[in-house]
Amino acid sequence: MIELRFHRDLYAGVAVDEAVKTYARFAQFELEEAPGEWVVRLTARTPDRERKVARELGNMALGLTVRRLEAK
Questions:
Q1: How far is CA 7 from the centre of its chain?
Q2: pLDDT tens profile 30-61
Q3: Which of 33, 44, 59, 70 is the most core-located residue (most Cβ within 10 A)?
Q4: Region of residue 36 (phi > 0: left; psi between -120 and 50: alpha; otherwise: beta)
């Protein structure tokens, strides 16, 4: 299992949610709200896949957050 923490001042919650939905077929996810952070725990079939999904998820969440800010 890999745990990712997305600071609320930097990441939009809807962007994190959308990224999780996009990668749901590649891993299982647990989502949690912590003070100041969105917490995502993911489990995949292999450690390699976990690392890859975690990197891609982080990239997508950041990209979607930037798009939201640009659209304002």
A1: 11
A2: 999 999 999 999 999 999 999 999 999 999 99
A3: 44
A4: left
* Structure token digits, residue 8: 């609320």
**Is the entire prediction scored with pTM above 0.70?**
yes
Percentages (nearest 5) of helix, strand, coil residues in the chain: 50, 30, 25
Contacts of 28-36 with CB under 8 Å at 24 or more apart are 34/5, 36/7, 36/8, 36/9
On whether the CB atoms of residues 50 and 2 are closer than 8 A, the answer is yes
Nearest to 6 by CA among 35, 30, 38: 38
d(CA 51, CA 37): 20
Contacts of 12 (CB under 8 A, 6+ apart): 64, 65, 68
